[in-house]
Every structure is written in structure tokens, then in C-alpha cells.
């Protein structure tokens, strides 16, 4: 906090300047409040009085963002899982095919599109804080253009999914059925391409509850349509996956109609523009770094299951790990909600020129997520002997899950911090740096160490998981160190420079031709 105390004069100047600029524009969206910055800068209050008042302000803002974001991600997860459950009632082969298509190939597209979409989170969040409202719609459209183009390339992977699965060693019957399921998910690729930029556009303006309501309504429609198409109309696997794609398009259309109909966005969405096709190369670089960062994290624990399949008694190992990974996946949705909140808070405050608020928001969101993760981890340890019976009735699997529960608890705690720090990185625009950190910690430390402990020292799943936890711990420590050492005054300046540069990218092609 000492370094941040040096900016009081800058802060008051910015605030006065903002007031002069915003006063005549009464119809503009409500600017980012300076209440938190004012409290943190008020030296007439005692340190503990400032801390208590600032904490209350930030917690109120944080949970209004995090709670609906968590609901959105959980409901979206339930939509995909429900399709898998419906298909599972068709038979064991259909269950295996849907699981492979859903958690294998489909996760790749989800991670890629969500990662690329986080570039919008950085730019829209900072632009909204800086009152450059008209640029939010431009960033939304630029991202959609890039993601739709990427979707064409991903479609090729989906088309050849059977050949890919056969190369990976899957049986011909499962590969054929999984490919059939994946073909029905091709429209979902382009729904992702449209959804994630829209979702980040809304989040950057702290508008999240409508997405939660839309997701809840879509889930109800999805369940009814899935039951009707799969069982009553005999649509089978292909019908189930097509309904899943259709449900995602419901979310996209509903959110976009909300943007068009609501007065909240008349300054941030001003209609379609040709600016969406300018500055695409720079936008692609930021989007690629964002995708690289998120995909490396998403794939990391998927690799744990693949490696564990090579162990002795692989069936029991995979059963117990599947239970643990399912639990971890659900808890991770909570962390993703805090990730979104962290990104919005940091990017908005940086764009608004509030360095103290940015730093304080990081502390509050990280601490809140960590405390909640510790509580959940303790509950998991207390229920370690019975938690597996939710998924299976076998006592052998229950015993195996009980032995792995300490590793699950540690993973939950680390996931309470690491995704939040990634959200801070997105808010600041550090995606490329975090991607390099992820490569080093995950793939040059975590996986090799896990393989050595699991196979060389014959520690099995515990050894593999221990090594990969080591990689996650190192990555978390690095991000914590970098975040603690951050000069938030410089980050504010970087945000302003970034927005000025992106704001000027309106006609780069004409400029290049002239040069």
C-alpha cells in the first residue's frame, strides 16, 4: 500500500478531469465508482477504519459479480453433462462415445474459444473503466470475427474426429460412435465463437445476472428437448448432440437480443461496423496468448487421467480419479466465477485510473476465494470415506477415493488461488507471460515429475498427482510473487496506452497502403 499512497495527487486530478468530461453526458452508462479509491486515499481515517470500510465496499461489489458468474458456469456445465447422461441411457457404448466426445474433443474447442474470448475481457473491461464506451462493441465484433474464423479450422478437426480417435488407440466401435456424436456438435463450435465474446462484453460492464437467467431457462428447454429427441423421436447420439448445439445457440441469440433491446448498452453497442475487420492481427496476437494460457491449464489435468491409464490396475485407478476429477471440476466452476470477477474488477479499475482499487480488489478476491476453497477442502476430507458413493456403490472405489482425498483437498485449495490470479492476469493483459509460466511449470516440471514419481518410484496415481501438484504450486507461487511486486501505477499507464493504441486501429489497412 505504501507505493500506492504516492498517487493521491494523480488520482484527484483524474477524478476531477473525469467529472468535467462526464457531467454533460447524463445519458452515458454509469462510470466506475471512485468510492473505493476515495476511501483508500482518505488519510484522515485510521488505517483499520479505511481497511474495514474498503473491505465492505469491495466484498459487496465482488459477490455481486462472482455469484451470478458461478451460476452461469455451473448451469452451462449441467447442460453438457445432462446430454451425456441422456445418451448414457441408450447403452454403455453410447455413454462411452458421448463421454469421449464431450470431455475429449469438445473440451478442446471450449478451452480454445473461451481462451481467445478472454482478450475481449481485457480490452472491454479497461475500455469501460476508461469511459471509451463505443469501443466495447468494436472489440466484441473483432473477437467474433476471429473466433468464427478459428471455428472453421476447428470444424476440420471435428470432421476427422474418427481418424484422430483411431490414431489415439480407441476401438473402432467407440471411435465411430463418438465421431457421430461430435458431428452434431459442429454448430456448437460457432455458438462458442459468438457466445464467449458476448459473455465477456456483458461481464466487463458488470452485467451478469441476465446471463444466469438465460442459462437457467435454456437448461429447462434443453432437458425437455433432449428427452423428446433422444427417446421419443429416436434421435440417438446425433440427435442428442444436435440438441446440445441448439441449446447453446439459444443462449447466444437470447443474450444478443438482450443487448439490442436493453437501454444499458446503447452507448457500448452502436451497431455493426467495418472497424471489426481492422486491427485483426494485433487482436489475434492477444487472443492467441489468451487461448494458449487457458488451454494449457485446461489440458493439464486431462493429461493426468491419460497418464494414469498406463498404470497397473488401470480400471480402479481411472474410476477413483474420475470421481476426484468430477468433484474438482464442479469446485473449479466456483473458482472460474471468482476468475471472472477478478478480471472485471481489475480491468475496470485500471481503465478508470484507480491503482489503489486495482491492488485492493486483487487482495480481496484472492483471499475470499482462498478461504472458500479451504472450507470446501476440509468438507471433502471429512466426507472422504462416503463421497464416492454419490457416483458408485463399490467399496473398492470408495477406499481408493479416500486414499486420494488429501491430493484432492490440496488441488481444491490451489484452485482457490491459481484461477483467480489468472483472472488478474487477464484483467491486466498479462496473458502471454502467464502462458510461458504455464508451459514451464506444467509441462517441464509437473508432468515429468509426476511420471517419475508414478512409474520410476512406483507411487502410482499418488505419485503422478503429486508431481502435477508440484507444477501447479510453482506456477501459483510465481503468479503470487509477480502480482505482489506489481506497480499498479504503471499498470494504469499501460492500460491507458493500450486503449489509446487500440482506439486508433480503425483504418490500418489504408494506412499501410499509403506508407
UniProtKB/TrEMBL annotation:
Pfam families, alphabetized: MatE (PF01554)
GO annotations of cellular component type: membrane
Record GO terms (molecular function): antiporter activity; xenobiotic transmembrane transporter activity
The keyword Membrane appears for this protein: yes
Membrane topology: Multi-pass membrane protein
Transmembrane feature ranges: 105-124, 145-168, 174-195, 207-230, 236-260, 291-311, 317-338, 359-387, 433-457, 463-484
Record bears the keyword Membrane: yes
InterPro entries assigned: MATE_euk, MATE_fam
Subcellular location: Membrane
Keywords in alphabetical order: Membrane, Transmembrane, Transmembrane helix, Transport
Primary location class: membrane
GO biological process: xenobiotic detoxification by transmembrane export across the plasma membrane
PANTHER family, per database record: MULTIDRUG RESISTANCE PROTEIN
NCBIfam families tied to this protein: matE (TIGR00797)
Entry similarity comment: Belongs to the multi antimicrobial extrusion (MATE) (TC 2.A.66.1) family.
Record's protein name: Protein DETOXIFICATION
Source organism (scientific name): Acer yangbiense
